[in-house]
Amino acid sequence: MAARNDFESLAMPLLDTLYRAARVLSGSDADARDLVQTTCLKALQQFGAFRPGTNCKAWMMRILRNTWIDVLRRRKTAGPQAVLDEERLPAAPLAEADGPGVADLLERFGDAEVIEALLELPEHQRLALFLSDVEGLDQDEIAEALDAPVGTVKSRLSRARAVLWDRLQDHARRMGFLGRRPCRT
User: Fold this and answer.
1) Cβ pair 65, 130 in contact under 8 A
2) How many whole angstroms separate alpha carbon 118 and alpha carbon 163?
3) How many CB atoms sit inside 10 A of residue 147's CB?
4) CA-based, 20 to 30 A from 163: which of 1, 8, 64, 92?
5) How far is Cα of residue 26 from the mean position of the Cα atoms in its chain?
6) CA distance 143 to 149
7) Which of helix, strand or coil describes residue 139?
8) With b meaning 16 or more CB within 10 Å and e meaning fewer, what string describes 13-33?
9) E strands within 5-152?
10) Which residue, among 32, 11, 34, 31, has the nearest Cα to 22 in the 3D structure?
11) What is the domain partition of the chain in residue ranges?
């Protein structure tokens, strides 16, 4: 029972973070919810392997990433999925319908051109950038979460930022963020 309480106190506060990362990976609310649920189940089952005093967030992110890779492998071997006629599906429950959708989450983030530029990044760069700039993980924690060397994380972050810089310079200029004189107080 103590292990379950420890798991709940360490892992459950990370649900929002896990969901946001799953959303970045999957691009779908439904897939993100499934991914987080599967991740939490695996983490609970493997909690005996968690070393107290280490970074639970990085540990959970690593399980999330590995679970996502498993999902992609299954999809690849399963072949194309059947397309459902959305008009024949029952309406979403009120609890889901009232919650923020993908469009709402992205609207809070910024404009369409920035979002499009982020989505054009390769998945490994986008996830590293998300973990660094949105979730605030340091490079060592990201390396642990992605099961990659710190140098690889640095490279991914640098390349992602360089691509965004190139892609968004004109947009930043149109928005008035480039070419302005800095404010002096």
Assistant:
1) no
2) 9
3) 12
4) 64
5) 8
6) 6
7) helix
8) ebeebbbbbbbbbbeebeebe
9) none
10) 32
11) 1-80, 100-185
Report the top-level CATH class of 100-185.
Answer: mainly alpha
Q: CATH second-level architecture of 1-80? A: Orthogonal Bundle (1.10)
Tokens read off for 43: 């983490």
Angle formed by the axes of helices 29-45 and 56-78, to 10°?
Answer: 120
Q: Whole-structure pTM over 0.70, yes or no?
A: no
CB 58 within 8 A of CB 131: no
Residues found in the chain: 185
Q: Do 21 and 130 form a contact (C-beta atoms < 8 A)?
A: yes
Confidence bin at 168 (pLDDT 50/70/90) = confident
Question: What tokens were used for 76?
Answer: 């690849």
